[in-house]
Amino acid sequence: MRYELYYWSGIQGRGEFVRLALEEAGADYVDVCRRDGGEDAMMAILRSESVMRPPFAPPFLKAGRQLIGQTANILLFLGARHALAPADAAGRLWAHQLQLTVADLVTEVHDSHHPLAGSMYYEEQKPAARKRAAELVARRLPKFLDYFERVLVGNARPPKYAIGRGLTYVDLSLFQVVSGLRYAYPNAMSRLERRCPALIGLHDRVQARPRIAAYLASERRLPHSEHGIFRHYRELDA
Amino acid sequence: MRYELYYWSGIQGRGEFVRLALEEAGADYVDVCRRDGGEDAMMAILRSESVMRPPFAPPFLKAGRQLIGQTANILLFLGARHALAPADAAGRLWAHQLQLTVADLVTEVHDSHHPLAGSMYYEEQKPAARKRAAELVARRLPKFLDYFERVLVGNARPPKYAIGRGLTYVDLSLFQVVSGLRYAYPNAMSRLERRCPALIGLHDRVQARPRIAAYLASERRLPHSEHGIFRHYRELDA
User: Fold this and answer.
1) Strand order in the sheet with A60-63
2) Domains of chain A and CATH, by start
3) What residues of chain A have any CB closer than 8 angstroms to a CB in chain B?
4) What is the pLDDT of residues B141-171, one digit of tens each?
5) Which ipTM score applies to this complex?
């Protein structure tokens, strides 16, 4: 079966967490909005009155007749299908719990450049963004990074994966978190990385996996930019 | 088995979504932080180095030897155990997808009074809160409420539940959303409720369910206040 991934064209954004899982799984999928007319097709689904279980927002995944929305929920689905999650119920809940914590971090990173309104440009909310970004760098990122470091170290020594002895979608998402933060907050990360060597090690291992390495080198991997979630604005990363 | 719910004492907050499910299920549970020493016990778990699968933040639920964090994840667990979710896998994912959309709404409501930093008092970020709250009321709440209305109307006519023919934890959470928004943004809601009669009807039906009615009348139901997520500040609800 060929999956259809619906997400805004041109950015990594939340869709990237799904792309990484599809790529690692070697799944057959179409990134719909990168095709002509794809974004129109996505908007048609979002606006349709006849879709039975409509998503609130992208990304969403079409899997046969099922339409699945919410990034972490899509990964919950894909993880079970493609052996990217633990096999037992408790392990799956734990993986999902970690993914929801990644989702919280992603929202906070987004809000660091859009603290007042998603409908306004960054340039219209710069002073507020400066304050929110300062909070992110000083308090929130250390808290999140320390947490994920603890999870990795607590799982195995030497640390290898977030859960058990095999790769899960959580590891792929943690790779993306490090990749995004390095792009958006390079100064802050140059300091913060010292406190999370296991997380950085995980990032490097994921990056070197054959399918992920091939993906990252392909044109399917979009570049980081100031249109996505992880944005680099020098004034926010003093 | 007696569940242990860990959440900040004195507020409804995110814990309330879990409490409502436990109450409707007639589950045996302790609201740990409402007992003497409870909050210390919670902090000990959060800070412990020996907890195998540590939660990032409250609420979390202890179920036997399992420790489950992230509100929506706890509901995913409880829904399956207490027949508060569809029986089929696709239905469960759909319920969870809706719950994650509720979670997004809850975060946006929280950020309407804390747009700059969770570590600062509301009084220190009032001008920013005014802008963010204006965005919430003008754009985001209409979008969320229209969405849930559409889901309810799309599920059955006349609308009764969010999913299928039976009550799920999503319905309980939507009750709490309406209850919280009515408290926090009464002026805005007096206008917005006209666009979501099915959602208001659901709120009323959930409120009248025997176990929920008994819970709401008990001292176990904490009052809304300016310490939780749904806070009423007159200047944000012009």
Assistant:
1) A29-31, A3-6, A60-63, A66-69
2) 3-81 (3.40.30.10), 89-209 (1.20.1050.10)
3) 49, 52-56, 66, 68-70, 72-73, 76-77, 90, 93-94, 96-97, 100-101, 104, 107, 111, 115-120, 125, 128, 131-132, 135, 139, 144, 147, 150-151, 154
4) 999 999 999 999 999 999 999 999 999 999 9
5) 0.97
